[in-house]
Amino acid sequence: MDAQSNDTAISRVAGAIAEPARTKMLCSLMDGHARTSTEMAVIADVSASTASAHLARLKEDGLVRLHTQGRHHYYSLENAQVAQAIEALMVIAQNADTQYVSTTPTRLQFARTCYDHMAGTLAVKLHDYFMGAGWLIAPVAGESLYQLTMSGEKAMTALGIEIETVRAQRRRFACSCLDWSMRRPHLAGALGAAFLQTVISRKWVIQDLDSRALALTSKGRKELSGRFGIVLEDKDMERSVMRNGTPLAEPALPK
Fold this sequence. Notes:
Elements: H1 3-18, H2 20-28, E1 35-36, H3 37-44, H4 48-60, E2 64-69, E3 72-77, H5 80-93, H6 106-110, E4 112-114, E5 117-119, H7 121-132, E6 136-137, E7 147-148, H8 150-158, H9 163-167, E8 175-178, E9 185-188, H10 189-201, E10 205-207, E11 214-216, H11 218-228, E12 242-243, E13 246-247
Antiparallel strand pairs: 1-3, 2-3, 4-5, 6-7, 8-9, 10-11, 12-13
Helix pairs in contact: 2-3, 3-4
């Protein structure tokens, strides 16, 4: 692709994202779930026909993927790269000229999904531990791609992650993703996705059915402290700890 064609392609994709209804649709798919066009119409607050037109545009520009099951049609983000691009735009969208104060709801700020990996305060703390413990290294300063060290491979294997299976995936193995609520990196890529599935299967966190929020269980809190030395302050996890398997009630946000 020559420079002029590349510029045109970037402008077209940017235009597809820029429409507010389409932006809402893309953001709603950041939890990794697929949704119907009817659900997307409700999310974007548009008519069914308008939603179909928006989804057709997003599909044409390679931002969403259509899944057909019988008479049912579902839409999901095309891939993890689209999710990372949206996450990066969320960071840019904050006004850099003013002092940064996160407006993300508390539960989402603490822990949430970013497509297929973990984001939020907890994810950033885990990323920092992985780097500080020497499990992950960045071969080139400033680069977003990571290598898993021998000690890191042993640690991840001990958690039940099959490293060779993760490496075999046709995607980046391990990389950083800039967290839009924390403005610091968390772990993404195939390894980040595998880690999230591991902590969910071990019931360290439980994923909300209707949002991107991840709720930390009492078991998860103990494991994070024992395995990674991550001691969470009450303010870090306010309204996010599970009690008897049920998320604490979240007060309504101010209108």
